[in-house]
């Protein structure tokens, strides 16, 4: 990986169309990509074979190209497989380029007998920074299981982080966890689960965001914008996403918003460059200090990662 800082492209939106201009050189850490290989003999649990966009090998050589084309300096991978050995598979896959692939948010099922064993073993690798809470075994009774709380406490005690995918969880769930475990570092994925419709944000969602953001240990990832538009192709004009982005900015501020893409899922809605242009457009009028926090400094702090090598 080249140790150069690639100029960030900011977006200026006129009449709903994106044009580009160079901005100051600010590193970018993408904190939300997935890597997997559909050609493995044992297969894989995700994505499904009928997904014509995603079902193909998605490996380092593919994201390396995306990174170089879009000025992405480093990334944190989010494990999309529920198979426990796949955590180590990803760590091994990217070990040849530790400057680019700097962290892994793993996949371990909270509340299971072997959780502690797996977390202890995987966290021996400094690149393993935490887990994502995705599935919800036990349904509505999930949080009545004391083993769940024991494992979440262990995460906190080990200074491991918790990403939360909002599909099977609510912002009220996150609020409950953050209050019970105020030292646990929590990162809500995909713009806090907003359903983006190109109109004023849903009042119930606004109230839930404002409530959960009062917890200082809760952060939000500006990822999955295209996905949350529920349109293919996704809108490319900033104005479509701005109501939700404005609310998240007001609620979480400059210290608790973190950049992520959700690549390769972004390809369902458009190119990586088009996605980054929307996000850059929102932050274009912010100070350099704010953009530095959003694009890389907040990620380093949240995940406890060393400074980028330049």
Counting DSSP E segments of at least 2 residues, the number of strands comes to 10
Largest sheet: 8 strands, parallel
Domain unit count: 1
Query: Taking Cα atoms only, what radius of gyration do you get, to the nearest Å?
Result: 18 Å
Q: In CATH, what is the class? A: Alpha Beta
- The termini sit apart by 10 Å
**Outline:** globular
Q: How confident is the prediction overall: mean pLDDT?
A: 92
DSSP summary: helix tally: 10
* Low-confidence residue ranges: 1-23
Strand content: 15-25%
The structural class is alpha/beta
Helix content: 25-40%
Question: How does CATH name the architecture?
Answer: Alpha-Beta Barrel
How do the helices and strands follow one another from N- to C-terminus? Answer: EEEHEHEHEHEHEHEHHEHH
Assign the CATH superfamily: Metal-dependent hydrolases
Largest beta sheet: strand ordering: 3-4-5-6-7-8-9-10
> What name does the CATH topology carry?
TIM Barrel
